[in-house]
Amino acid sequence: MKVILGAATLALAAASMPALAQGAAPATQAQASAQPKPSGKARNAIVGLQTAVNAGDRVAIATELAKAQAAATTADDRYIIAQLQLKAAIAANDTGAISTAIDAIAASGFLDSSRTSELYVSLGSQLFQQKQYARAAAAFERAAALNPANSKLPLMVADVRMAEGRKADAAAMYERGIKAAQAAGQKPDEALYRRAVQAAYDAKIASVDELARQWVTAYPSADSWRNSLAIFRNQHNLDLEGTIDLLRLMRANNALTKSNELSLYVNGLIGQSNFIEAQTYLDQAASVPGIDAGALQSLKATLAGKPKVTAAQLAASAKSAQSGMALLRIGDRYYGLGDYARAAETYRAAKAKGADSGLADLRTGIALAAAGDKAAATAALNGVSGPRKALAQYWLLYLQGKA
Q: What is the pLDDT of residues 270-283, one digit of tens each?
């Protein structure tokens, strides 16, 4: 898991240290205007601290730091001292001392809030890498308080919560980040959607379905479709009909790329004697990266010798069909043959003859979508009611993305 902005390298604040030692070259006017200036009262104490820090003498640093802090009278003094304190802490790789030094820099008031915020981001990133999650979150929260305009900072806190195992908290923070971007008229980053969906799924939060739909709507790809539909399948108790229709949607989006999904799809079709659709996809799957060749050959062997119905046989069967379910299966065969218009017509007839209306309407919409009749497919899918409505909404998303 990565921090959103990446692990920053902790560095001294942007303003450079003034030359304090005797004989140092004077700063230019431009440099001087950007540099803190020690007061006369604190100058000697600061030089003593600088000498100890440069020598790496930790005992002397502690002594000279106390002297310099006691002598400081201005914001510039306090900033210079805190900067030297930070330099010593970084050299010692002491995150506790680094944190104390950054607090001292912030308290000096010398830097503006944005630059001070960057220091806390650097500290938080270092603590995160060290798995000091509570302290990392505190640093990121301080950074966010100093720079509320940086919308990525609350998401860094969410990353920490995710790493801590506080996945429900992380999901809520990611979701707020998505809504904030949308409210500002911005398109949330895909990484943010991915994080939100993962956190909500891991935390078993009901909003995962809506988040997954938002992700696939904003960033339609084989990856987002496969992950979103896999989550949908895990969240819903789909029957065999629903599973096949979900896997058909994966196939339509080039997202049916796993051997176990291929086996589930083809075996489901075989179980319904829809041998032509099963064979058609097996032929296509041979060129899909990630499909295991052994699994492919096993399924092909299962299909070998299975009867492949013709359009003429289907037309004759439709005339003598005694039930809506029989007509629905004939519609499936037409779909497998690629005669999508005839499939849609047969699904409508199946519904009229008593087949499950939700299933018949869903399959009608799927067939019309494959036929390229976007308006009629949209109407059919919008008409799906009951437990298949949620899957119909995903088919509508697919349809909306087509020209």
A: 999 999 999 999 99
